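Something for you to look into today, if you have time. I want to see for myself how the chain folds. Leave the record below and I will have a look.
***
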Amino acid sequence: HLAGENLFSHRWNEEQKTRIRKSRIDGTRQVVEAIGRAEPRPRVLVSASAIGYFGPRADEELTETSAPGDDFLAGVCGDWEEASAAARAYGVRVVPLRIGVVLDNGGGALSRMATPFKMFVGGRAGSGRQWVSWVHRRDISRLVVFAIDHDSLDEPLNTTAPNPVRMVEFARTLGHSLGRPSWLPAPSFMLRLALGEVSDLILKGQRVLPKRALELGFEFEYGTLDSALEEIFTVEDVIR
């Protein structure tokens, strides 16, 4: 179950925050209710969560056992995981995937970040010191299969690559992948003015590590940012 309202589709007001919560938590509850009625029942529920569970944490290394944050998105993620955990009452394993910044040129955060670079006006966001915990789209799919196949796994899984980077390095590597310079920073005040509260997702990072997946033997196909962006962007992508 991977559904949920796009966090960047609108500025966050109380109405939008309600949509963000309901689309995740209510949808998950409906899935769990369907599992309870199903015969036979599935063996496992792999459900989306997000690294927003941890809240902004500066340079702290975050693993699956790290404490949750206390901001809006951390609360949503905590309730989201709690909703999926109800499936355990039906004898179903539950694996919430705490997904990081998804690298996929088909939409989402990466496409938005790449646009100014393609126009030769790209650069870091804010100070550039915040951490970006990213994951290639293909490794998400592989981790879903991994969670299904590992019968011992019945707990959250950090779904991020093993090598998070600071924003300044992310911007530099993105520019290099597109054959563009990374030279024009986007100041924090401009992002806050343009995006409102949701800008915190860009300006305040998390250094999340996939400790549990690595301990269980998962091998990331794209463990470095260079290799991930090289696979995603082609000559045609740069021209468009």
Summary: Residues 95 and 155 are 5 Å apart (CA to CA). The chain is about 40% helix and 15% strand.
